[in-house]
Amino acid sequence: MVRVRLLGPVDVTVGDEVRALPGRRRKAMLAVLGLHRGAVVGVDRLVGLVWDDEDSVVLANTVQQHVSGLRTVLGDRLAIEARPPGYLLHAETDLALVDRHVRAGRAADRPEVAAGHFRAALELWRGPALADLTGLSWLRGQGERLDQLRRDIRLDLVDARLRLGEHDRLVPDLEALAAEHPFDERIHGQLMAALEAAGRPADALAVYDRLQGALDRELGLRPRVELRSRRAALLAARQAPARPPAGPTAPAPVPAAKRAPAQLPVTVRGFAGRAAELESLDQLVTAGVAPGGGARPGRVAVISGTAGVGKTALTLHWAHRAAPEFPDGQLYVNLRGFDPGGAAVGAGPALAVLLEALGVPAGAVPANEAERVELYRSITAGRRLLVVLDNARDAGQVRPLLPGPGPALALVTSRERLVLTSEQRSIGLDLMTADEAHDLLRRRLGESRLAAEPAAAEDLVARCAHLPLAMGVVAAQAMARPLVSLAELAGELRDAARRWEVLDGGDAVSDVRAVLSWSYRALPPPAARMFRLLGAHPGPALDTAAGASLAGVAPGTAAELLADLCRASLLTEPEPGRFTHHDLLRGYCRELAAHEGADGAERRILDHYLHTALAAAIAINPSWQPVTPPPPAPAVTPADVAKPADAQAWLIAELPALLAAIDTAAAAGLDGHAWMLAWALTDLVERQGRWDEWQAAHTAGLRAAERLRDGPAIAHLHRGLGRLRMWQEQYADSLWYFEQARERFVALGDRHGESRTEHNLCQLADRRGRTAEAAGHAERSLALCRSIGDVPGVAKELNALAWCLVELRDFERARDACEEAAAIYREFDDPAQEGPVLHTLGEVHRELGDLATAVPHYERAIGMAGRAGDRYAEAVGLDSLGAARLALGDPQAARAAWERSLTLFEELGHQRAATVRAHLTGLSDRHADADDDLGRTG
């Protein structure tokens, strides 16, 4: 048996024989494949990780040579499979064996069985993981992750031994571990359990007290719920202590009326970012006194935003900073508008608290709410007070609490977008920027820890969705678990089953999932249903039509419900009519949909995207080969994409959702939806040069078609992948896909599909410099189109044939073919398809020496390509226009055309950029030579 060993120096065992690996790169490549066992690793990723992103060009054949060497060491050519876009390792690894042991141990009912598996897993380590590859940054991080895994398994073994009753034997080791890791709550919990079982409850309580002191002193945290529960049980088991003897009476507090109230809670430690919002609040300090010295109406600022976005943190940070500007006092009330218990503080009780803080004796507080409002406004009028009204639910709860006229300032925070006065300052708090998020982590964890794992820090910020509450909880976790790498924490956040556990700070206000749930529970039932159904939406954003299909309601109703969610800060509207929310809210929606039911939403939204995408594909290319989808579910409202411009804009905007819908459909067993969605995107991704999206969509679509054993679908997707490989200049793969497609279309008797594939073979032959072969494919495709009466197809093939005839110097036939094609497109009013014909006519006239006629043909073709969003055709047209302009003696116009062409080719990642760059270099050299000649003649 062949096994790759990663848990120590990297090597290979074949049976009992250990085989060393020659060369650091080869060893690193095997490690990367082993760490991704069972998944394809792209060549680009392999190069980036193995060569550590060095500024050197690593050719594909270099990777192939290393793979060939590895296969020799493994003794099995099938152990590493070449699978586009990279390689896949099939061999066993010691890490995979560890994973099986750990899973079995954690699932075992009997502690002795669990302990056996954990011991077997630990025995597979031969030293630090990936010990001989620490010089490569990604592999160094993976080694640290695996070493942390080793520590976790050791603690799993401790749990099993505790269940086996080995308490006394474990105490010394656990005491040493607790001293070494003073913030590790798991170790301290195990030590408490061992001491309690050993009959030492007082020592167990002392362990808790030490942990609590360290967490509070260093991190400002409490121990987690399970440890607090253990402590409560220990205390309950003890006899209640005797009441201490009475002592001297404590001094009476200073009456409230004799000192200014200072009720602001402690500010958040390590506050970061929010410079613009702080500046906006600073401007309010000087806005309280009128120029003549009179009092203005009371000032109000409302800070709104989604749960966990840091509204209270911002407010308290600024309030402490601005406190000296409010010498008459700072008041604070938590209105509990989104409290988990659902009991918001009413205006009456809140006024009683505020009045007592302002020196009104409890017995003098009016019983009637209206009288309380009158007294409160009288007392606050004209005073420089800061009143913080935190976590408000609605405007009715807040308005009675606004101070009277004068320099007082009321700061209100709410998840709702409250409108309290016509002159209020409204601050919508969004997610943190990337820089702000990194600054927050840096302040909490220190510069060195982030610098040691920059990629993991980026991943953490992304996994926390830039949400301050989530990042604060994760930072606290990282501080409490110093042996856990940031990469591993990010990995735990990627795991949907563990995400909420990691984001639980140990109490209601720092449990991210609970905080999000309060907003959901506060919604009226129709809006709550819409929010829950968003969990069935596959993408990051949606429009009103998609929302209507998702919920099975009319578009007008959907617009109202989506607006309700925006007002509750559970959605944002970054552009009119498009809605989104951050990844953690999206994950919470999916959990709700899974647990509470999605009411058929998934099928409706997939039908919505499939039917709209197919209609959009035909709108932007009427000659596109259509497919017939199943009828949509009731209450599905496809978007209106009849106009080509609307269709293209919709496809571009919805591309992330459409790509995700392919995977969602496949996972739901709707393979027909999956492959048709992939096929519908072909023209868009080709015109836009989106090679990665094209690859993802068609690969997933082809897998779906193969599961269905659907011959026409497989043929369509083979043709699509052939086109992709052609543009990527992977000509051998392209030819294979086209030949597979043609063979299937011929067997099916699908002459339309056969003609399209012949057209693609014409393109491929032309790009390979085989012009006569290309002309033959064009003529076969033309004959097929004429035989089935496909008039737009006839025009397309006439243009393809004309292009070949230009290359073959048969200009008269080329011109005739172009003019016939252009006439057909004008009859069908299809300017997007007429553009390539005009470009070919430009080539004909340029070859005939009629540059004055060629230029306007090029210019019209470029304009049509731009309007159609076909960036490749636009770039090619500009390249030809540049050459024609130069030949006409206008180097400035030539430069302008080539510069635009170069920009487009570079954005497309197309190799033709090098050719255009050479044109520009030659133009500059020619200009320099001309300057030299002028200098000599001068």
UniProtKB/TrEMBL annotation:
<dbReference type="Pfam" id="PF13424">
    <property type="entry name" value="TPR_12"/>
</dbReference>
<dbReference type="InterPro" id="IPR005158">
    <property type="entry name" value="BTAD"/>
</dbReference>
<dbReference type="InterPro" id="IPR051677">
    <property type="entry name" value="AfsR-DnrI-RedD_regulator"/>
</dbReference>
<feature type="domain" description="OmpR/PhoB-type">
    <location>
        <begin position="1"/>
        <end position="91"/>
    </location>
</feature>
<keyword id="KW-0238">DNA-binding</keyword>
<comment type="similarity">
    <text>Belongs to the AfsR/DnrI/RedD regulatory family.</text>
</comment>
<dbReference type="InterPro" id="IPR011990">
    <property type="entry name" value="TPR-like_helical_dom_sf"/>
</dbReference>
<dbReference type="InterPro" id="IPR001867">
    <property type="entry name" value="OmpR/PhoB-type_DNA-bd"/>
</dbReference>
<dbReference type="Pfam" id="PF00486">
    <property type="entry name" value="Trans_reg_C"/>
</dbReference>
<dbReference type="InterPro" id="IPR036388">
    <property type="entry name" value="WH-like_DNA-bd_sf"/>
</dbReference>
<dbReference type="Pfam" id="PF03704">
    <property type="entry name" value="BTAD"/>
</dbReference>
<keyword id="KW-0804">Transcription</keyword>
<feature type="region of interest" description="Disordered">
    <location>
        <begin position="236"/>
        <end position="256"/>
    </location>
</feature>
<dbReference type="InterPro" id="IPR027417">
    <property type="entry name" value="P-loop_NTPase"/>
</dbReference>
<keyword id="KW-0805">Transcription regulation</keyword>
<feature type="DNA-binding region" description="OmpR/PhoB-type">
    <location>
        <begin position="1"/>
        <end position="91"/>
    </location>
</feature>
<protein>
    <submittedName>
        <fullName>BTAD domain-containing putative transcriptional regulator</fullName>
    </submittedName>
</protein>
<dbReference type="InterPro" id="IPR019734">
    <property type="entry name" value="TPR_rpt"/>
</dbReference>
<feature type="compositionally biased region" description="Pro residues">
    <location>
        <begin position="242"/>
        <end position="254"/>
    </location>
</feature>
<dbReference type="InterPro" id="IPR016032">
    <property type="entry name" value="Sig_transdc_resp-reg_C-effctor"/>
</dbReference>
